[in-house]
Design a protein that fits this description.
The chain is an alpha/beta fold. It has 2 domains: 66 residues, no CATH class; 157 residues, 3-Layer(aba) Sandwich (Restriction Endonuclease), CATH 3.40.91. The chain is built from 11 helices and 6 strands. A 6-stranded mixed beta sheet has the order 1-2-3-4-5-6, with helices on both faces. Helix 9 packs parallel to helix 11. The relative contact order is 0.10. The N terminus is likely disordered.
Amino acid sequence: MIWFGNVERLVVHPDAESLGFASETKRMRTALERVAEATPGLWGPELLDALVATGWVDRTTAESLLPQFRHFDPDRHFAEHMRRLSFRGTSATEEFRAGVRCVINEIAGNASVDRVGPEHCVRFAPSTFEGIVLAHPEVSFTITGRTREAITAAVEEAPDAIVVVARNFDPITAVQLRSLLDRTGVPGTLVTVNMLLGLRATALRYQPKPEQVVHLLSRGGMLRSADIARLGDRAA
């Protein structure tokens, strides 16, 4: 599997005291958790490279201890990590956005962090499709201020879809997004973090075509679990 992760997110340079007092097993688990939080889909040599890049273990230790962690589930850890981040607000925005980019890259392809208007965003462009994702680790998220400006700037680019990801949304948010996009021809989709993780799990299990995932992300409105279930049905 190709590693699309950012090694800079893995290099944490643990202090000498932490390394000195932690057992090899604890250091290995810490390394596995750091890698899973950034790039949960790694395996083989790429996984070993990433474990070493964390600074918690060397390659020899990683190779010798990895079989002992065969029950470690990187996908589950990644999901729990994203849910924790989604409660933390603006202090976790960069890390949350990176996690969203990871998911979009896995399920749709060709995703990268960029800017639109005053905000950073995730752009994804599988084939001829172009989408823009705004990621906010906030509860009861509403579209105001910089996010409103970012959506207005995104509309000017005429993408095929604008997606907003948050922990969850205030009931007014769907109305706000619909009002901003009215008569623009650009669909806007609201995706909670749980729906995004459910979409990832479904895509990894059933391997739908990227076009099917893109169609789902560009449907407009609030993404529902029934929509994700239909994706699994069509791919089966």
